[in-house]
């Protein structure tokens, strides 16, 4: 899993990780760090890594959370795709879009964006495809 700025990095909680690898930007340096050592030291822990241009020092900290504090896991890509498909079907979005693209390619209006806006407005909240538009 890749770290994303502004987000807390969490492990799955099944097995506590023993070590992690820290890569900085264009991998100017690398160090293997013991997560339990970071957590045991509490506050900050200075980690030194050797880069191609010399030494880099990182101030790192880790907190080990109990099971009650672990966030629920992210939804898998497969589950997210299934949820998205269910949403699109429930609101007839795919049906309207397919009809719109078909009509767009059949009539080839000079202003396709106005045509598409009109088509969507004409379909309304029912999700029914409007009759062929001119």
Detail the topology: elements first, then pairings.
Elements (H helix, E strand, L loop, with lengths): L18 E5 L5 E6 H6 L4 E7 L2 E7 L16 H14 L2 H15 L4 H12 L11
Antiparallel strand pairs: 1-2, 2-3, 3-4
Helix pairs in contact: 3-4
Q: What can you see in these coordinates?
A:
- The protein is α+β, with helices and mostly antiparallel strands and 134 residues long.
- It is 35% helix and 19% strand.
- The protein has helices at residues 35-40, 77-90, 93-107, 112-123, and strands spanning 19-23, 29-34, 45-51, 54-60.
- It has a four-stranded antiparallel β-sheet with strand order 1-2-3-4.
- Helix 3 crosses helix 4 (112-123).
- It is elongated, with a radius of gyration of 26 Å.
């Amino acid at each position: 899993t890749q770290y994303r700025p502004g987000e807390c990095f969490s492990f799955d909680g099944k097995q506590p990780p023993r070590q992690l690898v820290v890569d900085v930007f264009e991998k100017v340096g690398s160090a293997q760090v013991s997560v339990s050592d970071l957590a045991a030291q509490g506050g900050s822990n200075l980690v030194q890594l050797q880069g191609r241009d010399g030494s880099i020092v990182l101030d790192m900290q880790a907190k080990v959370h109990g099971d009650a504090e672990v966030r629920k896991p992210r939804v898998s890509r497969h589950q997210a795709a299934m949820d998205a498909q269910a949403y699109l079907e429930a609101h007839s979005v795919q049906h309207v879009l397919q009809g719109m693209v078909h009509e767009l390619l059949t009539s080839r209006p000079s202003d396709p964006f106005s045509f598409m806006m009109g088509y969507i407005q004409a379909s309304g909240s029912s999700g029914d495809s409007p009759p062929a538009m001119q």
